[in-house]
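**User:** Hello, beginner here. Are you able to go through the protein record under this note? It all follows right here:
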Amino acid sequence: MLTSFMGNPITAYQSIKKIWESNSNYWMIFNDSTNRDNILYAYTLYVAIQNLKQDFLSRSTSTLSNNSFTKTDSEALDLLRIRGAIWLIISATSAILPDILSDKVSNKQFIHFKRLSSIDEGADLWKPLIEAILPLAVSSFSQVLNDGLNNKMTTGKAISDFTRNFKGLIKLLPEQSSLEPLVNNTSTERPKQNSITSK
């Protein structure tokens, strides 16, 4: 999860063993900047994606007449079912954070919630963003994932194209105001010890 958040979804998906065997891969995640708050920030992103996938699955099999499962939802679920998709979406989301936060991100390991009382609260903060980017992720990542998420060059280009396309769309998103709770509760400064409160 942290490897994906730091921008290396292929290692996270294909070569998890390398994180422990390669000094460079290990040091990218576990270093002087590693902190609890950032780990929770990335983990709640992972939980939000998993929760949304489960919601799609539930609605796709629902027989209720008021079920609102759409074609767009079906395409998003198809994407999330592909192996490696969640790691790629975590990397892509991490890549667009500077645009969402309108802030310079000097170190991704510094990004954290200012306040967080539970994992569920953090996942709920991520939900509007994940819902907004999934249609773009479908068009950007389906081919890369169908090819097995194993080519660093094509994966990097897909994330770069996704980021560029997102920059063009962000101001047009009707959901932009729903991103404010995430944006307002996110800090890009080095976390202070015990900066996250818990109930």
The radius of gyration is 17 Å.
